[in-house]
Amino acid sequence: QVQLVESGGGLVQAGGSLRLSCAASGRINSISTMRWYRQAPGKQRDLVALIISGGITNYADSVKGRFTISRDNAKNTVDLQMNSLKPEDTAVYYCNANIKSGSYYSDYWGQGTQVTVSS
Asked: Using an 8 Å Cβ cutoff, are 32 and 58 in contact?
């Protein structure tokens, strides 16, 4: 069994910062791409940032220059540093990873962590 567990959400004022963390555990042979998504109430789940195993990153236009994704391949973790937060960043944030457990890669999701940015 593979699990992704997020932590670090909370309430912050506009302009503030939060750091989200996600740890993968269980039977893990390797992890390729790791991602952060977010879903605001009544909206679809959108990709925020991704990082491949070699460290290349990509960001949604709405967070470029404010958010930074990073990973620790030895610890099977991925973080999202969020700076200059805006009320429109309010959402449930989900960790996602392509993990090889056994012979094949599969997609795994965390349970989500709430981020609320007050104006």
From this structure: no
